[in-house]
Amino acid sequence: KAESLTSLAGTMALFEDSHRDVVRGVGSLPEMPELTDVCTLEKMRAVNGIWTYMSPHVSEIIDKAATNNYGLEQIMDLNPTLYTLMNEAVYMYSAVNSGKKNQCDLASEIKAEGWFKNLAEVGRQRVQTQKSATFFLQVVKGVQYAASRASLTTAVAEGSESMRLCIQGSYYLKLPSPPTQALVDTLMEAQKYWNMMKSNIDNALPSSKFYDLSNFPVTKTINYADDCTTKMDTIAGMYVQATLAQMPTLRILVVQISWRQ
């Protein structure tokens, strides 16, 4: 029994690590870059969604070293769907690596709620980028240093999470993944600038005297934030156009939401 529980825990950890590595890429492995195919991203969103519902029941078995009928029924119901989705995702991933192009029409499957959530998430990421730049300058200049540093840490963490959601979507949150390859490609460009800004901030945060670092690339860091914001503005516009193309009757609501972001 103990050996089986250990094996189950190891399998669960392996699944979660592998899913993260496939979607986000493994920096040390050139043959496993970050996932950028629009169709495969959506399939991995579905895989993660089913796993999100199934994993608590698996964790309960591991933690309590016991099973219950409800948990087993949930696992039995969800596992075939998860297995099918995983196989489909593997096929798509392999196709891209072989130079083939996956075909999918994701935009036509998104309902009004999904479009609005996409617009809202893009807006949230854009706000967190702007907040990160503002608090970064306040910390550099020593303006309310402790409070600014805490706010900066929060803004960067929330901005990173929002960027991940913009790219991957969320089955649990009913947030669609980007419906077109053009959106994915532009999001990857925005993420590149976000990561460069974040890297600079992370390198400086351990210092207790952040604003004493005379050689720190402050201007370059702010430029990265501006570049990221510009890309997110472009993405917001692309989402507006994509939404109206699918649901022209929502024009007034879409314009209102986009202006509020």
SSE topology sketch:
Elements lengths: L1 H23 L13 H27 L4 H29 L14 H29 L4 H24 L12 H24 L13 H29 L4 H10 L1
Q: H/E element string?
A: HHHHHHHH
Structural class: mainly alpha
Q: Kindly report how far apart the N and C termini lie.
A: 53 Å
**Overall 3D form:** globular
Mean pLDDT: 84
How would you sum up this structure in a few lines?
This protein has 261 residues and is an all-alpha fold. The chain is built from 8 helices and no strands.
Question: Which features characterize this protein?
Answer:
261 residues, mainly alpha, 8 helices
Structure description:
- By secondary structure, the chain is an all-alpha fold.
- 75% of the residues lie in helices and 0% in strands.
- The chain is built from 8 helices and no strands.
- Helix 2 runs antiparallel to helix 3.
- The chain is globular, with a radius of gyration of 21 Å.
- The model has no long low-confidence stretch (mean pLDDT 84).
